[in-house]
User: What shape does this take?
Amino acid sequence: MDEKKATWLWDASIIEEHTDEILSFLADQKADTVFLQTQKEVSHEAYQRFIRSATAQGIAVHALNGHPDWAYTEKRDEGTAWIDWVKEYNENAAPEEQFTGIQFDVEPYQLKRWEREEAAVIAEWGENMEEWTREGAEGGLYMSAAVPFWFDARQAPDGSGTFSRWIIERFDAIAIMAYRDSGEQMYELSKEELSEADELDKKVWIGAELGNTEEGEHLTFFRKPVTNMESEIEIAGKLGTSHRSFAGLAIHHYEAWYQKITGDLTFARKDE
Assistant: This one.
């Protein structure tokens, strides 16, 4: 089965020296989308070179960014300024050097305030997302968000239904952090969102974790053999294809994936 895969690439500095290696690995793994975290320290020329090579191989590059506190009203402008940066970059790049879209990874539930004022944080975050999706659409950008699987058990800011459905309505796609070491469980955790996206004609990636996490062995393929990881991911993919919203698997993350498949620790500079 050859369903497409996406991956998150967190350290954009590696594109300056490893573009060919990264893209040849992604082509081998049948990846067609990269969420590339943008860093101001990386030159426009490096982004242009990387995206131009990726485009030639049929791989779309989406700009990736976000911080837990971007959910707060006072940080809305940071998200908007980043969208403006991507739009400006695209305006000054050739078509084959442009970011296809933007992915927001904003996880305020990592912060203390979430426990105390979840509904208030969701309300502020909702207003931020409304502005960001509007800004992104104006720039012709495909807008996606990384979300946890349990947002289908939270209320939308306006009380209209689930928070997951509310987000899916506003974005073009979501990537669900359905992190488990079982393909069936990954699918089960994503099923509700896939159904919501089916109705709304949107897209959903099912996320798989390969990195070393302290949150439990059952969340990651870090210590599992490659054959086990690949067969479980294939199961999630097969189950996912019963939904027209299914966009493929999203592998978290490129460096962990590369190490897993090749055994090469070139990128092992920092613990997750």
In short: The helical segments are 15-28, 44-56, 76-91, 112-138, 163-170, 183-200, 226-240, 254-262. The mean pLDDT is 96. The first strand starts at residue 5 and ends at 9.
